[in-house]
Design goal:
The structure holds two protein chains of two kinds. Chain A is an alpha/beta fold. Chain A contains 14 helices and 16 strands. A two-stranded antiparallel sheet of chain B has the order 1-2. The chains are: A alpha/beta, B mainly alpha. The interface between A and B is large, with 47 and 50 residues.
């Protein structure tokens, strides 16, 4: 298009009027206590909604508490939340919006590893601080982000020996077919080997598989002593039902890194789920005062919340770690907050004490082992101050602050 | 030997579930040429009806076999009157409208029952085949598939309604001149299709994790089966679900579940390439 005089006049006039409209807002904000914007990207609809909804509620609780206590640095907090609708494309789009248009101070969110890897580069590029709170396969090394969910060294490493002591040494692994399941299955194999066991087979399942008949036959043919499951999502719950329907439940022990993240124990009958072993960074059934207080508050805020798992608790803790970081830095600027968090800031959350690890930007935290009984988890063991050793073995942000990649385990 | 029996049961299970899931779609698509993209959501509604009725204290068999098809059938009638009846003969419009309908149904169920998982336990236990175990429910599903097949066949073949319905599907104008009201026949047929889909949802409820979005897992396989089966409802759906059930289950057993799905879709592409009219377009012409 050639630049005509008319076009030039029209566009400058438009620009001038936009500036004129915008300036009163700017003046008003400069004098009032402008809210600090906290970005949130979670799925509240679609296949991941069962995970995302409690995370959003938990984040809202955190923001409300800070505001009730007079805000942060004398300014109120305001949540800018986008429902990513279980759609990776929307993750990328909203991540850009939060960084560029809304200019939020921090972003809390991302659920699946696929969604995290979709938005992480955006926040690196636009230098927006990012807090990720889902348990995941480990290995992300990025100074711009902090990760509060558990990693395999904190959960799988504890789960495998316990489950092997209950079941036996011959292990069959079943996992969801995307990066979380693929990498977690590798960690499972590593820990099985380290504990003197043998992996008979590793099977992956696309997320829309609903008929597990052939798999159940295959498992029976392989005769394992123990099944390790990293199945994900509503469709995969069918495995546990069809397994129980075939009468296999009391014959082979099942342990899982994912079962019970939603309300599975309450959904399945006791006959289908009794005895399944799980390890997470938090269980709603924990009876510590911090945990029960948190559960009460969150259930008051959101009555319909079906189960409060590590996802919600870690989101609350991740957000509060950022709050502590800002308090220490006395600013919401990205770099000073990162440096403040790197001093090893701690927060006493519902799961216990959570401490930021400078080297990996992960956290050390308590993890818990529990067994399903009567449609509830019974927490049987606590592992205090579990370290993110998997990531620490490959990632050192003290030495290489510019490192930026996800390391994968190789067997 | 035991393994062969177990594998045969797996194939039976795959084929029976596929047949139950597809027969309602085959009626709606095969007879009225409506591409019902809300088919998966009809399955979901059937599963929810079962869960809710069972949790309200109703006997699980009653809620699976009676409540689920009745409820979804009524929903189907309502939808036909409000939406589908304006779309006969408009293939592309019907796709768009039913896709919208599927989003609406997902949204409604999510709003009312939340985004959480639901379920009912599987009735019946397992049994032993040598060193392997399988579930009685597999055999029950196969039995239900056979009964549904017999019922639909008898309905279309031996009743006055079946005769009229087939006549309307072949030539609505001619049927109308003979005093039949095609609109009413369409309505009832759509209701029956929806009801059978609801029945499938009810029967699969004890084997699935039930969420508002569960329908998405079924829709592609159902359409492939119906298109692969071709125009005749019973024989087409039966042969196609038998074939795809076999390929999918054995593929998943001998390779991995990932390849099981790949092999299923590959064989569907091959089938459509070789038999563009579907299996029944070639072998069972003129049967119901």
């Amino acid at each position: 298009m050639s630049l005509t005089r008319r076009y030039f006049l029209r566009s400058t006039a438009a620009a001038a009027s936009v500036t004129a409209l915008a300036s009163p807002v700017f003046i008003r904000n400069a004098f009032a206590a402008e809210p600090i914007l906290v970005g949130s990207l979670h799925d509240q609809s679609g296949t991941m909604a069962a995970s995302g909804s409690p995370m959003v509620d938990s984040l809202k609780l955190g923001v409300e508490e800070v505001n009730a206590a007079g805000g942060l640095l004398g300014r109120p907090l305001k949540l800018v939340h986008y429902d990513t609708q279980s759609n990776i494309q929307l993750y990328s789009q909203y991540a850009q919006q939060l960084s560029v248009r809304d200019k939020v101070s921090v972003i809390v969110g991302g659920i699946t590893s696929a969604s995290r890897e979709a938005i992480r580069p955006t926040f690196d590029r636009f230098r927006t601080l990012y807090v990720y709170n889902t348990l995941y396969e480990g290995g992300v090394c990025d100074r711009n982000m902090f990760i509060t969910g558990t990693t395999p060294a904190q959960t799988v490493a504890k789960l495998v020996p316990y489950a092997m002591s209950k079941g036996g040494k011959k292990v069959y692994i079943i996992a969801a077919d995307y990066n979380y399941g693929q990498i977690t299955a590798k960690w499972m194999q590593k820990y099985v080997k380290e504990n003197g066991g043998e992996t008979l087979s590793v099977d992956f399942f696309p997320l829309d598989v609903t008929n597990f008949g052939p798999t159940i036959s295959k498992i029976q043919a392989a005769r394992p002593d123990l099944i390790l499951s990293a199945l994900v999502g509503g469709n995969h719950v069918a495995f546990y039902r069809q397994w129980a329907a075939a009468g296999m439940k009391d014959r082979i022990q099942i342990a899982s890194t994912t079962f019970g993240l939603f309300n599975e124990p309450a959904t399945l009958s006791a006959a289908e789920s009794d005895g399944i072993i799980g390890t997470f960074g938090y269980f709603e059934e924990l009876t510590t005062p911090a945990s029960t207080a948190y559960v009460d508050k969150l259930k008051k805020l959101s009555r319909g919340i079906p189960y409060i798992s590590e996802l919600a608790a870690a989101t609350y803790e991740g957000f509060n770690l950022w709050v502590e970081g800002v308090k220490k830095a006395k600013t919401i600027e990205r770099l000073p907050v990162i440096e403040a968090l790197e001093t090893g800031i701690a927060f006493d959350g519902p799961s216990g004490k959570v401490v930021v690890d400078h080297k990996t930007h992960h956290v050390s935290r308590n993890t818990y082992l529990a067994v399903v009984k009567d449609r509830k988890w019974v927490v049987t063991e606590t592992f205090p101050d579990a370290q993110p050793l998997d990531t620490a073995a490959v990632c050192d942000l003290v030495k290489n602050p510019n490192d930026n990649k996800q390391y994968e385990i190789s067997l | 030997m035991d393994l062969a029996i177990i594998l045969a049961l797996d194939v039976l299970n795959g084929a029976a579930s596929l047949f139950l899931l597809c027969v309602g779609l085959a009626i709606i698509f095969g007879m009225m040429k409506i591409i019902n993209l809300a088919h998966g959501e009809f399955v979901m509604l059937g599963a929810y009806a079962t869960v809710i009725a069972t949790n309200a204290g109703m006997n699980i068999w009653v809620s699976m076999i009676i409540v689920a098809p009745l409820f979804v059938g009524l929903v189907g009638l309502l939808i036909e009157r409000c939406l589908i009846r304006f779309l006969y003969g408009r293939l592309v419009d019907s796709m768009l409208a039913t896709w919208g309908l599927s989003l609406l149904l997902i949204g409604l169920v999510t709003t009312i029952y939340g985004n959480t998982m639901n379920g009912v336990p599987t009735p019946l236990g397992g049994f032993q085949v040598g060193e392997y175990r399988s579930s009685w429910y597999t055999l029950f599903l196969a039995g239900m598939a056979v009964s549904v097949m017999a019922l639909v066949y008898a309905l279309l073949r031996f009743t006055r309604f079946g005769l009229i319905a087939r006549a309307v599907m072949q030539n609505p104008n001619m049927a109308a001149t003979l005093g039949v009201n095609p609109s009413r026949v369409y309505m009832i047929t759509f209701g029956i299709g929806a009801g059978l889909t609801g029945l499938a949802g009810g029967l699969l409820a004890p084997l699935s994790g039930i969420t508002p979005v569960m329908g998405a897992a079924f829709i592609a396989k159902c359409f492939i089966t119906v298109v692969g089966g071709g125009a005749t409802i019973i024989s087409g759906t039966l042969t196609a679900s038998g074939l795809f059930g076999l390929v999918n289950q054995l593929g998943a057993y001998f390779t991995t579940p990932v390849y099981g799905e790949v092999i299923l879709f590959l064989s569907a592409i091959l089938l459509i390439r070789i038999l563009p009219q579907g299996i029944s377009g070639r072998f069972f012409k003129g049967m119901s």
